[in-house]
Structures are given as C-alpha cells and as structure tokens.
Amino acid sequence: MMTATLTKPAKSKQRKQRLPHTPNYVTIRSPGDILRDKIGEMGIETVELAKQMKVPLEIVEQLLRSAIPLSEELAQRIEIVTQMPAAVMMRAENRYREKLISAMLYPEIPAYWGESIINRPTEGHVVCLLQEISGRLARIERELKVQRKTR
Known about the structure:
Blueprint: E1 26-28, H1 31-42, H2 46-53, H3 57-64, H4 72-82, H5 86-105, E2 111-113, H6 123-150
Parallel strand pairs: 1-2
Helix pairs in contact: 2-3, 4-5
C-alpha cells in the first residue's frame, strides 16, 4: 500500500495582494470637517479665517461643527480665502445633508460621523434640515406661481 505524504507548497516570493477593507459603516465628512483640514494645512486659526471671510466668528465655529448648513455665499467666501472651489464645497454639503437624512431614516445602518463617532445627528440638525426643505418648497411654489401667471 502506498502512503501519500503531504508537503507544503514552496513559498512564493511575491506577496499576496490584499483586497481593500470594506467597512460596514457609512463615512460622512461634512464641509466643516473638510474646511477644518484645509485651514489646518494652511496654518490659519478660526479667528483669522473669520476675519478674512468677513463673517462673525460664531458663523465659522458653527460651520466647523456642522451646526449650520453651508450656503453658496459662505462657500464663495471660503473659496476666496482657501482656494477650494465653491462648487466642490457645495457638493460636499449636499452629500452630507443627504447622508444625514438617510442616517435618520435608516438608523440601523451604523455611521461614522466625521471626526467623532459620538457626533450623531441632533434635534438641531433635524430642525435645520426641515427649515431648509420648507424654504426650498416655498421657493418652488413661488416659481410655479410666476410661471402660471406668465402663461
């Protein structure tokens, strides 16, 4: 009777290519996180940023905390100071707000909120989003009334 012996295959000098890790959470970076990174790279303090943007320090601090939504006017002021395109910041704002809404609608999906895992949506975020949505709806209604009158 023949016995088979098992031998280990020869080790290859090439390393196995690892597949990238796919996290089981949603990464959400707000425009405030992006702006904080940029001013850190530039070595600008928040007080100096507020002066250069010609806005109150409170607004900059709220923006960095994502307590207020980024407006087009603020995005343009940020572009002047940091050279980050306003359109890029507005896309980041829109993505952030969309993910914020989906995280509130689907709380079973874990989410990593920017710099801190504890920084979950608050009632203030919800109120801010509802005000923004109602403002957009009011603008759409006004535009529709104007269109109807011009017909």
